Amino acid sequence: MLSFFIYYVVFGAILVAVGTFLYKRWDRGQSNAVVKSIDAPEWILKTVERDTPAAEFSQQELYDFSTRLVSQLKGALASGTDAQLARVGQLLSEPQLLTEILWKDASLRLSAVFHSYPREYTSLLEAIFVHSTNTTQQYSAYRMASCVMAPPKKLRKLTERMAADKKYQSQSR
Predict the structure, then answer these.
(1) Which of 62, 80, 110, 120 might form a disulfide with 147, Cβ 3.0–4.6 angstroms?
(2) Percentage of the residues of the chain whose pLDDT score is greater than 70
């Protein structure tokens, strides 16, 4: 009876290991396709900088905007279609992102997005760092990188490179 039980435990452990391995391979393949579409710089908008300061936003408007940003970001990182990436690029150039309160509201949710999609999130920030000329997008990328709690080495190095570049820090109000 004991050998019968051991047989099922070993067989079950092997099935779980094989299933986990197959899932990880499938997930990596899905992630590679999304990262490839994020790395293509066409989705990053070349927007014109605004000369006038943005209007003041209420607390509720900032909360709604941060909720919309996080949901759009999750959708874009999950599927990586050109339309979703273009919407994220547009959202990352909005003047609401220059408000300090927004980053306090969104930091935990952005950290959760990073932990759900670490490769895609890092790839998005690298694409903005390399290809964007919009200072609001650049500042947003810096703040998004700074929001992640206990970042891995690759994201920490990217954040340090952004911190060394003054254009990523000069936008806050």
Answers:
(1) 110
(2) 89
